[in-house]
Amino acid sequence: SYELTQPPSVSVSPGQTASITCSGDKLGDKYACWYQQKPGQSPVLVIYQDTKRPSGIPERFSGSNSGNTATLTISGTQAVDEADYYCQAWDSNNVVFGGGTKLTVL
Amino acid sequence: QITLKESGPTLVKPTQTLTLTCTFSGFSLSTSGVGVGWIRQPPGKALEWLALFYWDDEKLYSPSLKSRLTITKDTSKNQVVLTMTNMDPVDTATYYCAHRTSGSYSFAYWGQGTLVTVSS
């Protein structure tokens, strides 16, 4: 079965750039999306179709996807961005989520 | 405005069947490309996709849980129903339903989730 691999945790200082990766076989040939989830809340879509931002998502969130890796980049990270982040893709009519990355803003 | 809300039992016993209902508004499940999916999240763990019901009545299931899942819809009530048989304590999780936007390959709208505990 298809798997998406994320680092369990990423730390970043306020104002710096955070990068969270998601790896999967030929992931670049599929569309990747990203969700932000804060404690006790439902996931929120922050990036879809590799690079697109839904309405209301700040411009500091961006995405890329090439080869075997999709990347979520948060520029000028703020304390409010501290959360769990999950990547998601489709493989043969199956929805696959990554294991999640806890972003800590120190 | 698209909204979804999950409902169902908060506690089920091992071996019982779980039935969850997703009641939605703000969109039609008859619109081309639209789908309603179910995703769960055990406490402190990652999201796990379970099933998806498409506008054209196509149904998709997680391969690892397919034998235990059934997804149906009630168009008149704007509801999608998920049943999961033979519940086990490892199935304890928050269960979410979510709206799959046409062509986006993602879930843009999520319900608030409902915590289901499996215990005798």
Determine the N-to-C terminus distance of chain A: 36 Å
Q: Write down how many β-strands of chain B occur, each being a DSSP E stretch of 2 or more residues.
A: 11
Mean pLDDT of chain B: 96
The poorly predicted ranges of chain A are none
User: What integer value in Å does the Rg of chain B equal?
Assistant: 14 Å
Biggest sheet architecture of chain A: 6 strands, mixed
Strand content of chain B: over 45%
Order of helices and strands of chain B: EEEEEEEEEEE
Oligomeric state of this protein: heterodimer
Largest sheet of chain B: 7 strands, mixed
Largest interface: A-B, 24 and 21 residues
Q: What structural category characterises the helix and strand content of chain A? A: mainly beta
- Kindly state the number of beta strands of chain A: 9
Global outline of chain B: globular
Q: What is the helix content of chain A?
A: under 10%
* Tally of alpha and pi helices of chain A: 0
Give the rounded overall mean pLDDT of chain A: 97
With helices defined by DSSP (H or I, 4 residues minimum), what is the helix count of chain B? 0
- The dominant shape of chain A is globular
Radius of gyration of chain A over all CA atoms, rounded = 13 Å
Query: What's the order of the H and E elements of chain A?
Result: EEEEEEEEE
Can I get a quick summary?
Chain A has no helices and nine strands. Chain A has 106 residues and is mainly beta.
